[in-house]
């Protein structure tokens, strides 16, 4: 997993790269590179790159999530190595917002409004706990996979809702910032011809759904 964001108005010329999460963190800085690792086991949680546009000039003019390709990650790894850190980054260009097909759904044993869904993502099947009032079996939805960054900045991590494991999020149109999206609870149910399970969600086409 590799999630990157660049927000010069709020943070200056800093590229934030997240690879994991932990409550307790240790931080080291050298030559404009800030390394964040887990205080418990030392696993890499991410890097902050100060003066990022000097390494990646194409960042200028961007704001929000940044999708790094292999060549860009290679440049960052050179910066990491020059700063004396060993843990390198690995590019992740797989789509994080995909079409999912809800194969089955059961009531949550400890909640009167949550459902446990089994969702086909094409190359894998995942369990997602969903609170949308209109969720149903045998429909196509938009799934934010683990590792996705929502338009709000929220990162989707594996977790549990009321004690039941959940891996991903079934999205509402408003959560995806689609044009003219209904501002009420409920997930986005896609037309049958929108695509197949596992296909990357087409945001441009999605913006036409409520035109």
Automatic annotation (TrEMBL):
Residues 91-202 form the TRNA-binding domain. SUPFAM superfamilies: Nucleic acid-binding proteins. The keyword tRNA-binding applies. It comes from the Bacteria. GO terms for molecular function: tRNA binding. The keyword tRNA-binding applies. PROSITE patterns: TRBD. Keywords: RNA-binding, tRNA-binding. Pfam families: DUF4479, tRNA_bind. Transmembrane segments: none annotated. NCBIfam families: YtpR. This is DUF4479 and tRNA-binding domain-containing protein. It comes from Limosilactobacillus mucosae.
């Amino acid at each position: 997993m590799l999630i990157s964001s660049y927000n010069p108005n709020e943070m200056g010329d800093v590229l934030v790269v997240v690879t994991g999460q932990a409550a307790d963190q240790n931080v080291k800085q050298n030559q404009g590179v800030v390394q964040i690792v887990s205080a418990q086991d030392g696993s890499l949680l991410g890097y902050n790159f100060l003066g990022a546009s000097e390494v990646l000039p194409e960042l200028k003019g961007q704001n929000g999530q940044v999708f790094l390709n292999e060549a860009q990650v290679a440049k960052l790894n050179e910066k990491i190595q020059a700063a004396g850190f060993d843990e390198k980054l690995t590019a992740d260009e797989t789509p994080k917002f995909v079409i999912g097909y809800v194969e089955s759904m059961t009531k949550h044993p400890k909640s009167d409004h949550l459902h446990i869904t089994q969702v086909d993502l094409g190359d894998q099947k995942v369990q997602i706990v969903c609170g949308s009032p209109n969720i149903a079996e045998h429909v196509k939805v938009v799934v934010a996979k683990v590792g996705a960054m929502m338009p709000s900045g929220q990162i989707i991590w594996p977790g549990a809702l009321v004690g039941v494991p959940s891996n991903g999020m079934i999205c509402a149109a408003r959560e995806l910032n689609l044009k003219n999206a209904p501002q009420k609870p409920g997930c986005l149910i896609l037309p049958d011809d929108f695509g197949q399970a596992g296909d990357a969600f087409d945001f441009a086409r999605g913006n036409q759904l409520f035109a």
